[in-house]
Amino acid sequence: MSIIYVLIPIAIIIVALAIVIFFWAVKSNQFEDLDRQGYSILFDDDLPPEEKKLAEQRKALQRQEEKQNMGSENQETVNKESKR
Predict the structure, then answer these.
(1) pLDDT digit string (tens) for 44-61?
(2) Which long-range contacts (CB under 8 A, 24 or more apart) does 53-61 make?
(3) Which is nearest to 11 in space by CA: 70, 59, 19?
(4) Separation between Cα atoms, residue 37 and residue 9, nearest integer Å
(5) Which is higher by pLDDT, 69 or 3?
(6) 3-state secondary structure the chain
(7) Which pTM value belongs to this model?
């Protein structure tokens, strides 16, 4: 029976650690792009250099747009909270 006094705190510590790791992963955008690996098998890696450059430019533009969208969403949230 006394072992339960050891196991319950250990279980609580493990659950708390799992929650902290989950929130760290969400905060550091680990779940941002879940589709890329699934789609990578569908696309051919043997692109000519010109198309590779264009693809890289498109990706860079898309990342910039996503960052701007995230910034505007954060600003909207701040504005909504300040109105309250």
Answers:
(1) 667 778 888 888 899 999
(2) none
(3) 19
(4) 39
(5) 3
(6) CCCHHHHHHHHHHHHHHHHHHHHHHHHCCCCCCCCHHHHHCCCCCCCCHHHHHHHHHHHHHHHHHHHHHHHHHHHHHHHHHHHC
(7) 0.43
